[in-house]
Structure formats: structure tokens, C-alpha cells
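Re-running the complex after MR caught last week's input typo. The corrected sequence lines follow. Everything else is unchanged.
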Amino acid sequence: MITAVVPPLTPIVILARPQMGENIGAAARAMMNCGLVDLRLVNPRDGWPNPAALPMAAGGKEIIEKTTVFQSLAEAAHDVSFMVAASARRRDLPIKSADPRAAANMLWEYDGITPKAPAISAKVVKGGLRTAMLFGPEASGLDNDEVVLADVLVTVPLNPTYPSLNLAQAVLLMAWEWRMAMHLATQPAKSEVEVLSSQMIMPVEQLASIEEREFFFHRLENGLDEGGFFTVSDMATAVKRNLRAFFTRAMPSSQEISTLHGVIQALMRCRK
Amino acid sequence: MITAVVPPLTPIVILARPQMGENIGAAARAMMNCGLVDLRLVNPRDGWPNPAALPMAAGGKEIIEKTTVFQSLAEAAHDVSFMVAASARRRDLPIKSADPRAAANMLWEYDGITPKAPAISAKVVKGGLRTAMLFGPEASGLDNDEVVLADVLVTVPLNPTYPSLNLAQAVLLMAWEWRMAMHLATQPAKSEVEVLSSQMIMPVEQLASIEEREFFFHRLENGLDEGGFFTVSDMATAVKRNLRAFFTRAMPSSQEISTLHGVIQALMRCRK
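Corrected-run output:
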């Protein structure tokens, strides 16, 4: 029985004919945020290395230093078994399409190492293939000859009046969806009670506005100040903050806020 | 019975003490991509308007032109009933936390207008409150006094060695999750067959019928038999089955089947 824990292979990011070094750097940062490591460029407009990339890469510096450059998309993707191509527009091509979430789940199907039914067996049953996400140049996007090299066209259900994502934003969106696919696939399943209690949604019509809450907090804090609640003034800030967190966490309704005002009023009356 | 179609309220984006105009502009672009419209700034470092914002806003120009500025977070959020605060780090605060997907679903619970059980009734049963997403300054993130004004702290399961997102990337991530929450909530539930067929760009009515495919397979197999393709007859059944699986997996259209007939015909002509 195979019991070794093998880390998943992370998707390669391929930028076809990228134009601006800043975007390449920002894409590397987004990759680093999501745990991706392998960046490949096909014919970058301004050559490589590009001094504009590093400042925008921030913590993704090492990704930029290890970035490789290729003369053609086919060369850049030579070791890839499953590739998704991001596009702002639909194509008249007989190719499968998917939204980013579905595409990320497919990527994870191929590159992830998921021990199936871990309670019964740690047998590694799938995954371990190289996958890639492909993005086109800023101005024009991918051309159709590039798209048909991919297995799946990713179409993003964005605002139809302005669906054009910045290149690094597109990379983040896909890298993030892959990371969430991994996160959800590798986390232990939660019971329904756990899911419910982690959300705790109140009936919406009753929620107090932030203005109502603020007014209450000020009233409460004034009352406490007047009453000499904060004997050690150093602690006052932290104590007030924790009180606010407490009341906010309870998600008070307008009615409850009004009741709490009554409580303060009543208590202050007693004091006099 | 209420049957009016009310558009959902979209979350307000509040940037607390943002530093760089470029990031404010890029955040507006990301908002526009996801259909959000209301951007509010609390004490932007370099004042407002900021000439660095507009070039990065691209199609989000109008959002920048309508951006409003406030002196305090409480003022910026005065009309908000449910607010989530994005943070790269966990806090030692007694506040609920959620990942971006769960947080986006909560936002949608409050701001979205979802006709429940549309098959039975178009009654609008929930939603319609103002919600907000709160983001801190680039260098330091939100301080704890800002976080406790929010209902939920959003912690993002990013690469623990470098979880720090660029400000505009953080805005995109949350805005995108909200958009997907809306997208998934407002789409009619699909059958499994529809989900499968929606992953093909090809209109499903063009898919070749099983009869057309069968006819093609027979023709192909006969051609192979005639050409002595199956030298070991034991293997013929399995090889034929695998060929069928290959062609079926491609989900050929009627037109493509007809083209394939032409291919077989042409190849057989050559053989003679």
C-alpha cells in the first residue's frame, strides 16, 4: 500500500506574448500568494529579464528569478498534460469551456494528490500530472491558434459591460480558484451542524445598521466613562474594543439595540 | 404576491487609509469587472482626487469619478448593515471569521435578492440590505479598531510563507467571490446533463446521434478489418472498444462525423 504523502504538483502559469514587465511581476506575486511556483513566458514583448518585473513581484521574487522563456507555446507546454486557457471572450471553436471554478476543479483532478477515502485507506489513487493555466497578451488576449492547444477554455462570468481583467488579476483569479479547490479537497469534511454554526446568519430584516451600532457604542462607552468603569486608563482602549467586538459578534437587530439603550438608561438611572 | 424583479444591491468597497492612487484605480477596475459600483475611501494618504488612480482604473473610470471620501470608517459605513473585513492575518479578537467564499455567500444572503423556490412562487423573501467589504492600507492592513466594526473577519487561506495580497488583488478576490455567489444563486439549478453539455461550446443539438456514431464506427472498423489492422484477432474487440471510446469522448457533431466519413473514404481510396 502506498502511504507516502506526496505534495500536489502546482499548475504552471504560461503567459503568451506578455507586454508589460509590471504585469509579469504582479502575476508572480499572485502566484506566490497562492503557492504556485513555475512561471513560463512565450516571446515576451520586451525581452527577458525585464527590470520592471521585480519591484511588482514583491514576495514572488524567486519566481521571477526562475522564470523561463520559450519561443513557442508548444515548447512552453511540452511537459503539460492538461491545460486551461483564460479568455475574456467566447470563441467560435469546438473546445470545451468552463467557468474558473469548474476549471480549477479539473486542474486539481489532474495535478492534485488526493488520498481517497482517507478513513479507510491512504492509497493515492489519482493526480500527479503537470497542468498549466494559459493567459494571453494584455491588449488582445490569446489568439485562436493558442486556444486550441488547451483542453478547456475558461470563460469568466464577469460584468458583460467590462469583462476585461488586468493580466495579473486574471492570474490571481485562476490561481486563487485552484488554491480553494485544493483547500476544499484536502480539508476534512464538516458536519452540517459545523457549517451552520460557522455561519450563523440572522434574519436580515432585523440587523442593526453600523450607524445604530456606533450610536449605541458611544452611549455605552460614555456611560462607562462617567461611571468610572475604566479605573486603569491604559486598558480603556483595549477594553472598549473588546466590548465592541462582543456586541458586534452577536449581530444585534435594531430592536435589540433599542433594548440595550433601555438597559443603559435603566442602569444609569439606578446609579443616580 | 411580489413579482417585481429587483436587482441585487452590490457590496460597497471601503478602503481604509489607502496609500497609493495606482492601487485605488486598480481596485476600481476590479470592482467594475465584477459589477460593483460604490467605492468609498477613509482618509486616503495622498488626498482625493488622486491623478494616479484614473490610468489604472481603465474601464472603472466612472467608479473613480463617483468615489466618496470620509473622515472615519464609521461615517463611511453609516448605512451598511453587514460588513466583512479582509485581513492577511488572524486577530486575537472575539469576532467571527470566514474564508472569502463563505463571506461572499453571507454578503449575498444580505444584499442579494433571491426569489426562493422560483418554481412555486416568485415571492422575494430576503436580501436588499446594504453590505460592505472593508480593506486596510497597503503597508499595515486594518488595525483592530477598524476590524471590530465589521461583522466578519475574512481570512484567506493563502500560501502561509507569503499571504500578503496587493490591495487591488484583495479587492478582486472578494469581488469575484461575491460575483460567483450571485452567479450560482441566480442561475436556475441545472440537471447533471445540462451541466455536462454546458461545458461544451458546441450547441448540443448538433451532437451526432448514436445511430450516426454507430454507422461511423462500423465503417471505420470494416475499413480497418479490410486493411488487416487487427493482426491478432483476440485483441480486436478491446481495440475497437477503445477506438469507440476515443471518438465518443470527443463528442462529435453530425458535421464532424460526416467529415470523418470523408477521411475514411479518402484514406481507403489511397490504399487502393
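None of the earlier attempt is carried over here. Confidence is low (pLDDT under 50) at residues 116-125, 200-204 of chain B. The longest strand of chain B covers residues 82-87.
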